[in-house]
């Protein structure tokens, strides 16, 4: 999925269909495990994580236009701010050595924070996904090495798989579908969480910028001589801060 362009690749649609099919099989397995508390808890915990993925996916798909508009507005706001810094209005002159305010300082700060969060969160999700997918097979291998005979083949997700005993083909197919569903679920979580966190970081950075702009309304205070030019500058900055605040709260 691409929140900016609004495009959804056909592979994402196929993976989404597989994800919902696997969720249905998990629900069946949850019902069948009502007499096994340990397995019931396992099914419930995994199904809860996948259900959160469904909620996030529904939000990304059905509210995709709103998400795209929000992201586009954020990007456009940053572009306009940087353009304003490069081409300030005539009333936005600086006197008495006040020219130390830079919008780019704030944009670099929250962009750096977002890049760090993006890297760390993506790595955590990917590492967790790899461990979760590999752990059932590692555990099964260790049991085999210790001579413990297991009745059932390992599964990545606790799903209802009645065809496993019929043929190894159906078991391999089930594992492949479970892998696709697990990876897709993790990707949905990453896309949604990074979008939310990114917007929160951006809004925090913008309000920090608004705070800094409001502090610059009357200048640095080094020169307090009253004059028409300084009043015009202060008036222009008040209007800019007001307009900027209105854009943020919308």
What does this structure look like?
The chain is mainly α and 250 residues long. It has one domain. The protein is 74% helix and 0% strand. The protein contains six helices and no strands. Helix 1 (10-32) runs antiparallel to helix 2, helix 1 crosses helix 5 (168-215) and helix 2 (37-62) packs across helix 5. The chain is elongated and about 90 Å long. Mean pLDDT is 81; it is low at 93-97. It is a multi-pass membrane protein. The chain crosses the membrane at residues 12-33, 39-58, 124-143, 168-192. One of its GO terms (biological process) is signal transduction. InterPro entries: 7tm6_olfct_rcpt. Its main location: membrane.
Overview in brief:
This protein is mostly helical and 250 residues long. Helix content is 74%, strand content 0%.
Structural class: mainly alpha
Approximately what portion of the residues adopt beta-strand conformation?
Answer: under 5%
Task: Sum up the overall morphology in one term.
Answer: elongated
In round numbers, the mean pLDDT is 81
Low-confidence stretches: 93-97
**Cα end-to-end separation:** 26 Å
Radius of gyration: 27 Å
The string of secondary-structure elements, in order, is: HHHHHH
Percent of residues in helices: over 70%
Count of helical regions: 6
Main location: membrane
GO molecular function: odorant binding; olfactory receptor activity
Membrane topology: Multi-pass membrane protein
Transmembrane segments: 12-33, 39-58, 124-143, 168-192
Question: Which terms summarize this structure?
Answer:
mainly alpha; about 250 residues; sensory transduction; transducer
């Amino acid at each position: 999925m691409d929140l900016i362009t609004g495009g959804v690749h056909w592979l994402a649609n196929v993976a989404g269909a597989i994800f919902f099919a696997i969720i249905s099989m998990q629900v069946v397995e949850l019902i069948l495990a009502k007499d096994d508390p340990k397995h019931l808890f396992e099914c419930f915990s995994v199904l809860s994580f996948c259900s959160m993925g469904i909620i996030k996916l529904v939000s990304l798909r059905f509210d995709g236009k709103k998400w795209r508009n929000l992201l586009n507005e954020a990007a456009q706001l940053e572009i306009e701010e940087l353009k304003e810094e490069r081409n300030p209005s005539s009333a936005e002159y600086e006197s008495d050595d006040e020219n130390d305010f830079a919008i780019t300082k704030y944009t670099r700060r929250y962009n750096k924070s977002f890049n760090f969060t993006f890297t760390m969160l993506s790595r955590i999700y990917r590492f967790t996904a790899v461990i979760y997918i590999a752990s059932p097979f590692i555990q099964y291998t260790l049991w085999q090495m210790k001579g413990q005979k297991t009745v059932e083949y390992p599964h990545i997700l606790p799903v209802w798989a009645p065809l496993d005993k019929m043929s190894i083909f159906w078991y391999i197919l089930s594992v492949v579908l479970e892998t696709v569903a697990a990876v897709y679920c993790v990707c949905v979580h990453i896309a949604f969480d990074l979008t939310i966190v990114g917007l929160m970081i951006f809004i925090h950075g913008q309000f920090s910028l608004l705070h800094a702009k409001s502090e610059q309304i009357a200048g640095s205070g080094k020169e307090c001589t009253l004059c028409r030019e300084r009043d015009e500058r202060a008036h222009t900055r008040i209007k800019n801060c007001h307009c900027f605040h209105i854009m943020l709260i919308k």
